[in-house]
Amino acid sequence: MSPQSTTPLTTPTGPVEVPTIGFGVWQVPEDEVVSAVRTALDAGYRHVDTASAYGNERGVGQALAESDVDRDEVFVTTKVWNDDHGRDATFRAFDASMERLGLDVLDLYLVHWPVPRQDRYVETWEALRELRDGGRVRAVGVCNFHEEHLQRAHDETGEWPSINQIELHPYLQQLALRAFHEEHGIVTESWSPLASGQQVLDDPVVTRVARRHGATPAQVVIAWHLALGLVVIPKSVTPTRIVENLAAVDLTLTGQDVEELSTLDRGFRTGPNPDDFNEV
Asked: In the annotation, is 54 catalytic?
């Protein structure tokens, strides 16, 4: 398997390299996450994405501690949840996450959702910047921010988030938001990259491209993300699929393949619209 490529995240002190394919643990129960993460690390993943809201940070930390892979070789992301917005609450949430993960320094900390009704995401973004400037986090960013959320965060703090993790897959391609990211040096990271189900994986275009390459539909979709220059975090608890998903780094799609897959956009969300999601 080819070594994983990386994408630089912009920080005031220089770039921080994030592996372009990571292992996501959303909805992986605490009692399964240790085995899943250890399998992923053994397979060659060097990027693990969790969140306080997932309820499995402690298991991720256990897997990291038990792995033969050096801590410095693994890029770890977690996120601050909606009910911890605000400066002091964010600091407390960060300390709690770090205790559960068993880490001294985090690679990437993200604001999980903007939660517009609370109107505290800029203050929370400021708190993340303080944590980074204090040496506790290497890079900071956001999740699920639309253009107006990103613009306001920049206007009030003078800094763009280094990365925005958003729902993105062939049925929801986020073209305008990706263009905004590119204009302002924000890396795009895809959550739910396989659309959390079989609709995309069973799509005739996806299966046709998969047959063309002798690959799985999931490998084709992951390779499409990588071909577009995105960071992608597929999730699975099945050992064979964990290994198969990572093997997508060796799949090179043609320009025709990418064009065909890029015709599938239909604005289909598997998760909530950030403008309306105010759950705490």
From this structure: yes
